[in-house]
Amino acid sequence: MQSPGMQSPGMQSPGIAPGRQVRLEPVRPGVWLIILGTVIAALGPLFGFLVGSMVGIDEDADLDAIYLYLFAGIVVGGIGVGLALLGARRVLRDRRVEA
Minimal CA–CA distance to 38: which of 86, 93, 83? Predict the structure, then answer.
């Protein structure tokens, strides 16, 4: 026995009309590249700083590990900016007709 709120899939309530169909459209080429590049650009230096602070400081080192890993994180962040710019170029070159 079904509860009063549950109905079989073929039945509809008498006062409710069926809704309109949802039509999913794919995103433009390059949008996911922009999102990925932005996330990498934002998190790259943060993870570089985190890893550098976890490694710690050596007493006899010329450069601290935190500076080296932060520099590596900035390089990774720059690669992320490059990906985002590449995605923006793909979005701008897309010749889709707007409806």
Answer: 83
pLDDT of residue 78: 97
Alpha-carbon radius of gyration of the chain: 26
**Nearest Cα residue to 73 out of 55, 57, 51, 58:** 51
Q: How far apart (Å, rounded) are the C-alpha atoms in residues 45 and 39?
A: 11
- Residue 48 CB neighbour total at 10 angstroms: 22
Mean per-residue pLDDT pooled into runs of 10, the chain (99 residues): 56 69 86 96 94 81 82 96 96 76
Residue 79's pLDDT is what? 97
Burial of 41 (0-12, 13-18, 19+ CB in 10 A): buried
For residue 73 the two structure tokens come to 């994180």
